[in-house]
Amino acid sequence: MYTYKLEEDLDCGIRVAFKVFGGKWKLCILDAINKGKVRPTEIHKEIKMASLRVIEMQLAELLQYGAVIKIAEDAYPKKTEYELTPLGKSILPILIQIDQWGAANAAVVKSKSLETDRIAL
């Protein structure tokens, strides 16, 4: 894990939220887990753009901060699933609002994205 040269300011609520929930694919991972206990490979099937390695790294961070719990069964082959904790569930109302905002503004963002792609060419 990265060590900061300057002390982190965790008195700011936004910084705390981004420390726990910010990061590539974390909100999508939480959304996938919200649908029930899931294995990393099942999350990967739902979020195809994310590599399994990145999903596992993000799950490790969510586990570290207590947003998810890991349930490992003593079976062969080993079966590991993740489930949201109360901390992880507490972000869901915000996640729903983000999803609604994204759906409402998708057309605008897509058109701007296409403009940027054309400029880059």
TrEMBL record:
InterPro entries: HTH_HxlR (IPR002577), WH-like_DNA-bd_sf (IPR036388), WH_DNA-bd_sf (IPR036390). Residues 12-110 form the HTH hxlR-type domain. It holds the Pfam family HxlR. Transmembrane segments: none annotated. Keywords: DNA-binding, Transcription, Transcription regulation. This is Winged helix-turn-helix transcriptional regulator. It comes from the Bacteria.
